[in-house]
Amino acid sequence: MNDQYLEGKTALITGASKGLGRAMALSLAEKGARIALVSRNLDLLNSVAKEIKSTGAQAEAFKADVTDEAQVAALAKSVIGKLGKPQILINNAGINIRKSVTDFTLAEWRQVIDTNLTSAFLMCRAFVPHMKGQGYGRILMMTSIMSHVAIAGRTAYAASKSALLGFVKALALELTSEKITVNGISPGPFATELNKPILDNPELNAQFISKIPIGRWGKVEEVGELAAYLCAEEAGFITGTDILIDGGWTAQ
Known about the structure:
Blueprint: E1 10-14, H1 19-30, E2 34-39, H2 42-53, E3 59-63, H3 69-83, E4 88-91, H4 106-131, E5 137-142, H5 155-175, E6 180-187, H6 196-199, H7 202-210, H8 220-230, E7 242-245
Parallel strand pairs: 1-2, 1-4, 2-3, 4-5, 5-6, 6-7
């Protein structure tokens, strides 16, 4: 593969304002892709877009709540109007609420399910029709080690991510004839905003690291490079599966 193996491709990434979303945006842009950055925070998105543009790559920021059906429909029109039909869709938007199942409110449960799972359905329903007929396509879902294992206090998160993995498998089979691959990336412990409650607690942080065989938190750039490879032409035989990137967590 040459260094610009995504040249000519347009990639849309949700939850792109920080963390893993930002890292994937930077990595795909480095490989030549045009980037559509999506989140609810336009200021942070503009900062990422500026960072990408400083490298000579193209990026546009789009503010949208991807749990909202009307906003997703409007987003599709805006993205296609500015950047054309995307070939790559990365559903990365996600949240985690940590508490006992008996302490969850129904509103909190729905917030996690809608953000982590329903948003992926809405985005795929809106963009897949435009991805068809191009002879190439890549859809990545940010699943989780919680698609495979669990921790107490993560009922909503684990439920949403396990369901998302099922969605990956079914959608992959739907889209094989279009040469659109669909895969999950299951990050383990990464030092992102989502894990701030653990990172900010020295005792919890030490306990967490002790459970990671490699002995450290993951680096967001490692997910960025994996996502970029899965979007390459050379990854066209990988579909309907999930790539664990967890420092050995689930091997135990």
